[in-house]
Amino acid sequence: MADTLDLGQLRSLVAVATCGGVGRAAAALHLSQPAVSQHVRLLERRLQRALLVRDARGARLTAAGQQLVEEARRILAVHDEALARLSAATPAPLVVGCAEAAAEQVLPAVLASLRAAWPDRRVRFLVDRSASLAAGVARGTVDLAVVLGASGDAPGRLVGRLPLRWYAHEHAAPDDGGVVQVVAYTEPCALRTRALAELADAGRRAEVSTESTSLEGVVAAARAGLGVAALPGAGAPRAGLVERLDLPSLGVVGIHLATRRGLDLDVEAAALGALERGGEVATDVAPARHPAITLTAP
After folding, report:
1. 222, 169 Cβ separation under 8 angstroms
2. Which element (helix H / strand E) includes 53?
3. Peptide bond into 291 cis (omega under 30)
């Protein structure tokens, strides 16, 4: 007699009995018919008993097969009930997104606060573009996200602001024929739209010389001297880049907290509290033209 029985093999045998044949059982279990037949054969080998008899009308259970099906149903019921209880007692990880353009300024301080807010719950962080995170919140695959919005139609609740600054390599060539070469995210991108609009309003001719789908690509292109990049900035300057003070001021970009529909209000409140506690991330800001990150009252 076998010491243990395989649950997958037992499910296959029960499905054969319930569905009335190997073919129907395979379809119900989303398995191939040979896989279900193999499961039954393995059970027969373990128990050293015939469980199915195949004839012209198909397959039918033997007396031993019927007895095992009755036991298997009890075993599987207990197993599935226990699994359901354990799953209910272990909540799914909380998926928290942060816009990559602000991650350097916002994430280090906020990360610790978020984890402290939910000490007994797993938290999974996702760093991506604001547009992708907002789409994830709308689909329900992201529980809450800290996103950037440079316009009034940004998703979520405004919880703070970051200054926007122009960055370029210190030895970058001057503007080509008076045309400002801009390095930017691929569209859609609120920072790109803001940058081009401010240049146009100031009467500066501009063109996007390089675009990238990631912050790493934008920063790398700016460091290579391919153009200027409009990026959130607070505190220490970005490594390998200097600020271009001769270009029009970009103002600030809003930090928004977007939450999926149906999210527990206590979770949202904890996130707001974490942002309040972790939001003051820049303390060494010099000119008044460049305020540090500031938070609005929730």
Report:
1. yes
2. strand 52-55
3. no
Residue 253 has pLDDT above 70, yes or no: yes
What's the CA gap between 209 and 203, in Å, rounded?
A: 18
Q: Which residue matches tokens 């037992």?
A: 10
pLDDT(72) > 70:
yes
Confirm if 99 and 128 have CB atoms less than 8 A apart. yes
In DSSP notation, 263-283 reads --HHHHHHHHHHHHHH-----
Helix, strand and coil content of the chain, in percent to the nearest 5, comes to 40, 25, 35
* Residues in Cβ contact with 171 at an 8 Å cutoff, skipping those fewer than 6 apart: 225
Mean pLDDT of all residues belonging to the chain = 79
Whether the per-residue pLDDT at 173 is higher than 70: the answer is no
Mean pLDDT score, 16-42: 88
Contact 154, 219 (CB under 8 A): no
Q: Does 285 have pLDDT greater than 60?
A: no
Measured at the CA of 162, the angle between CA 159 and CA 165, to 5 degrees, comes to: 160
pLDDT of residue 262: 82
Banded pLDDT at 295 (limits 50, 70, 90): very low
pTM of this prediction? 0.58
Structure tokens belonging to residue 127: 């760093």
Nearest-angstrom CA–CA distance, 19 and 127: 47
Structure tokens at 91: 């909540």
Work out the average pLDDT over 219-229: 88
Residue of 106, 114, 119 lying closest to 293 (CA atoms): 106
Closest of 49, 20, 43, 21 to residue 33, by C-alpha: 21
Whether residue 107 contacts residue 133, with contact meaning beta carbons closer than 8 Å, is answered with no
Cβ proximity of 94 and 123 under 8 Å:
yes
Q: How far apart are CA 293 and CA 106, in angstroms?
A: 9
